[in-house]
Amino acid sequence: MPRSNIARRYAQGIFQLAKEPDLDSWRQELAQLEALLQDDVLRAAFANPSVTTPRRMELAQRLAPELRQETQNLLRLLIEHRRTSEMPAIRREFERMADEAAGIVNVALTTAVDLSDAEQERYERVLADRLGKKVRMDYRHDPGLVAGATIQIGDRLIDGSVRTQLDRLRQRLAG
Predict the structure, then answer these.
(1) What's the whole-model pTM score?
(2) Above 90 in pLDDT, residue 102?
(3) For 111-145, how does the pLDDT look when each residue is reduced to its tens digit (9 = 90+)?
(4) Which residue in 33, 41, 100, 152 could disulfide with 108, CB within 3.0 to 4.6 Å?
(5) Sign (positive/negative) of CA torsion 141, 144, 150, 156?
(6) Where are the beta strands (DSSP E) in the chain?
(7) Residue 117 contacts by C-beta under 8 Å, 6 or more apart in sequence?
(8) How far apart are alpha carbons 152 and 104 in whole angstroms?
(9) Domain edge (last residue) among 70, 99, 128
């Protein structure tokens, strides 16, 4: 999934503002802000050009008065620049930066069959050993792989699926 430059810039600003022991509270705060911006009433108000920026801010603050001042400043910037739709991408990018700072790698493992708990633990342990970092696994199931697995680590894809091997063989035989 391509990362937005806008989201990356906002996330970098938040990350620089956040301090290491406070990253988890920022994760929660950004999740709360993202949920707030998904509110149907608020989205309708933001989509309406007749609703002024100060009125939009007022509506958002009424729905979430508990947000810390820094988060309200972020919300104000997003509203003023009409970038509230970027919040999910901003949150994802912040999560990626926080994980990186904590030495955590996100891995998506897609297999042709569902894995047992023991198999999932084995994959997690082996990948953590190979990468030399903690891993956060996302297990997916895709019967279209036929057999084997694909492993997505950041922007890197390791494809050990039978489907890909069959596709390569088909191309060699056709070409």
Answers:
(1) 0.71
(2) no
(3) 988 999 999 999 999 999 999 999 999 999 998 88
(4) 152
(5) negative
(6) 104-111, 134-141, 149-153, 156-159
(7) none
(8) 14
(9) 99
Please state, in angstroms and rounded to a whole number, the distance separating the CA atoms of residues 121 and 124: 5
Instruction: Tell me how far apart the alpha carbons of residues 73 and 104 are, in angstroms, rounded to a whole number.
Output: 29
3-class secondary-structure state, position 160: coil
Residue with tokens 């030399």: 132
Q: What is the extent of the structural domain holding 75?
A: 5-99
**22 and 83 assigned to the same domain:** yes
CATH at residue 30: 1.10.520.20
72 vs 33, 45, 99, 125, CA distance in Å? 9, 18, 24, 40
| Interval 2-45: pLDDT, tens | 457 889 999 999 998 887 678 888 999 999 999 988 888 878 88
Number of neighbours of residue 131 by Cβ within 10 angstroms: 13
Cα dist from 28 to 4, 24, 32, whole Å? 21, 6, 6
